[in-house]
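Table S7 (text form). Paired inputs.
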Amino acid sequence: FSEINWPLVASRPEFAGHTEQSLKNMYFQELLSSTRKILGNKDDEVTPRQVAEHTREKNPAWRKNKEKQQQALIAFFEREVDQLGIEGFL
């Protein structure tokens, strides 16, 4: 964890909208925790490689759900902007 270049990770396009802190939180609260549960290990016994492997395995379903949520949010925002007659925003 301490060797991860968080500024570089946060600058990648697939993490747009995240900060270094939100990525660290995601790593600890979601990725590390779910990997630990699957493997039955304590946090300090889970390696970054194990987290990466677990994330790759679960990522396709998670990504589709996340994309649907994002598309719904964008569509809602666009409708609201249109209904309110806000110009020059989008």
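Next pair, protein 2 of 2.
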Amino acid sequence: RASYNNHWGVPLTLANLRPESTFAVAELGMNHAGEISALTRMARPHIAVITAIAPAHLANFADTSSIADAKCEIFEGLEPGGIAVVNADTLHADRLREGARRLAASVISFGADAAADIRLLALEPAADGSRARVSIAGRQLALRFAAPGQHWAMNSLAVLAVVQALGLDLDHAALRLAGVQPGAGRGATREIDLGKRTIRLLDESYNANPASMLAALDVLGQQAGRRVAVLGDMLELGDTAPELHAGLSTAIEAASIDQVFLAGPMMRYLDAALPAAQRGDWAEDSKSLAPLVLEALAHGDVVLVKGSLGSAMRHVIEALDQAAAEVARSADAPSPRSVVGG
């Protein structure tokens, strides 16, 4: 139903399964070692997927190899004959394969790596989606994705790996992938009418880590118009947080982003790393930043809003929606009538 991925959400998902259900998809999340181990034993998956390893939750892990080991716990709950699906391109891909082989009956890999079972051969990115050519099961498929960004293409390869593992129709799945749209807060794109200004919003406000932030900035860089990034703190990064926040300046430069607005104490490090021409405003939190963003936007701007869930970047989205609602109400209001006596 949703991102119910913790010690409450996974059992809630399982308890609400309908008896007639054919498939169930559950997300198993963690920010400490041992958490996925408990969840996977509840879910007892027939297929277990690891989409990527990234420097997230480093406050609770020594390094990314420890994160990889914690994610490999998902294979502990596999049913007999269970299949593991792993990313061949990600950090510690060999570690994932080894962890999977110990516990899975078979392993399917995906990615651009030459050894991947489901291999991305070519990708043509565009502002409103992308096209790809994929090698799978001894043949090639041409795919189209409605969501822009290489990360969506990679996630789609993971989907195709599951379809293959289940023995379902790959061609039908490829057609259905073309209609998949990003959800609210996870890359959804829409136009917002602010009266004399209309902007295009890339809503990535649900969550963030260094890898997903780089992916979102890359998508922003593919857009036509003045590019504006509104970014909030990435949380749970431990001692590496200042460096990882400041390091986003390289991706911002590569994406030719015109102006950057920042919220949160960690984003001060990025603010200091940016050239003066790119700096918009910095604020202590997203609520304080929202009116500054609203005032600075111009007609035709493309605006990315992204940050960790705890940074509450939804406040910026809410401010934009409220301003648009006021414009709409004003347009619907009857014109004043004047009475002239003589």
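The chain has twelve helices and twelve strands.
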